[in-house]
């Protein structure tokens, strides 16, 4: 049930409105749901100005955030809520003086940083002024008390790994609380008796919004279940209504690309338990967006969603939405997308000629020593009828012939590899070249596959293989190449 203090301000606003309108128009009943509008266009225009410019990629580290905490000005309370297994500080940021307690945490999985960057953008936005949005900030400040724990898992973030230094998935440690990081989160929830919780994650980029997969899932949301029966309490209902409100606005930015996460009860997870402990909990998962490998556009959508959501909590505006609105959001589908699908590719084998679809996905490998860079390697993710999958890029080959590329016979140094004319090599059937020495990542070119001196590449078109392909049209002209999962169209 809602506490009376939580909505004292909205109730006062509503009462004031009733009095004002009551004086102006004496006839007819007043509408019962009059919530202040959210100035979405103005907020959308404003957020880029408040972006934390030092964070531009996903692999930032706890040490990168230390000066940002130090620079947060008046209005923010910054301290340490605890320390990680390896002794790194887990920071806590507080803002606002209102009665409604909102707890927001990010990056409990160390390789899920998008919302952490968004929280720093949000801090700068909250500290902003004289941009026409001061009354909105005043509403937030007077209604809410915000407690943020960005980067709950700093040890995992330092390695860009999901789990903490004990190898524990913090999102399965809500009951045993073996990890100090999990105890920090539970302790904050209990200390605050948080009314609302925002559980901020990243998910894989190959989720689709709905099935059959058509569009990728840019953001997934969930009001987690608190029991096996997936019961809807009043508080879970509130969370679902808030999500419906967020979805409404996000749909304008990325139509058809918001998904609802599976709500099977996970008794060890934090979201499920916070809901059980009495905190209205909203899960936000940043997914994939074509052409945005560092997820900077999704980061922006996070900021917009958080400001929108906090305003809705402050004003009670989420009550305009229903659980039915929430349930209309399509369920997301893991592995519903591929990076690239070649439809109707003709593959020649000793047994004959077969026309099939070929899907590619791309795997990332984080590079030592500092885990700030990574390489991407593509592999064949599926073969056959892929019509139920979406793809970031899709081309119908109309039975064009695909041929796996071969390795250039001479090993070369890095500079010589850089100087190669890839199209000339493709015409001779080559897609890969061996280096004379082991070269540091990233490779000197992306338009040929660069192998180690002893490296080789499978020429089998098979699931899991990193095949590179040359594509010939009906007149047997070379028209395209797929190198490391990237489609290149070749001029005639
Ligand atoms: Zn996660």
Task: Give a verbal description of the structure.
- The protein has helices at 8-24, 40-47, 62-71, 114-127, 134-143, 154-159, 180-192, 234-253, 270-277, 296-315, 323-327, 414-419, 422-427; strands at residues 76-83, 89-95, 100-106, 144-149, 196-202, 208-209, 219-222, 258-260, 280-286, 332-333, 337-349, 352-367, 373-384, 390-396, 401-404, 406-407, 430-434, 449-451, 469-472, 478-483, 486-489.
- By secondary structure, the protein is α/β, with parallel strands linked by helices.
- The chain has three domains: 1-31; 35-333, Aminopeptidase; 337-489, Urease, subunit C, domain 1.
- The strands form four sheets. Strands 1-2-4-3-5-9-7-8 form an eight-stranded mixed sheet, with helices on both faces.
- Helix 2 packs across helix 10, helix 4 crosses helix 10 (296-315) and helix 5 (134-143) crosses helix 10 (296-315).
- The model is unreliable at 1-28 (pLDDT under 50).
- Zinc ion binds next to loops.
| Class of secondary structure makeup | alpha/beta
Low-confidence spans: 1-28
Q: What CATH architecture of the largest domain would you give?
A: 3-Layer(aba) Sandwich
Kindly report how far apart the N and C termini lie.
Answer: 69 Å
Q: Looking at the structure, what is the overall shape?
A: globular
Listed once per kind, the bound small molecules are: zinc ion
Main sheet record: 8 strands, mixed
Helical stretch tally: 13
Q: How would you write the strand order of the largest sheet?
A: 1-2-4-3-5-9-7-8
Oligomer: single chain
Mean pLDDT: 92
**Total number of strands:** 21
**Residue fraction in strands:** 25-35%
Query: Helical amount among residues, as a percent range?
Result: 25-40%
State the fourth-level CATH superfamily of the largest domain. Zn peptidases
CATH T-level fold name of the largest domain: Aminopeptidase
